[in-house]
Amino acid sequence: MSMEHQTTALASAAAPSGGTSKRHTRSRGRSKKAADPYASSYGIVPFKMFRGRPWTSTRDLGEATVGKHVLLFGKVLSVRPLGNTKAVVVLFNSLTSCTVRCVVVAGSHEGVTTRTVRFAATLTRETAIDVEGVVSLPEGGKILATTQQVEI
User: Region Disordered: which residues (predicted)?
Assistant: First the structure.
């Protein structure tokens, strides 16, 4: 055992009976965070990822498209983070003057991590983004803040 380890053990044993200090409970070797397996699906991605794929207009979104996988383009109108695992992004398409709510929810089965949610929460107004997701009906009923009554 090195001298440094002995000193740490003695210092924590000599700490007051209320518990050990924060300095002595920290790990010496910092573990690296695991790499995000979905890091290539958000952030700045090459345009070639979207070539040859059908784009959907926000004007065409409705109850007939519920359950379908869509690819949208637009600008961020507003962002509302709802904790570490959920964020709401309102997407505006200036060509169609339509808005749609996009809900980003972290879940291992959906391919969205908490890092993806944090990235979405940092988007600024007027940022041009591509959104890929499944069209669904909102849980609470009618959406008052957007022109389309479905969400991605």
Answer: 1-36
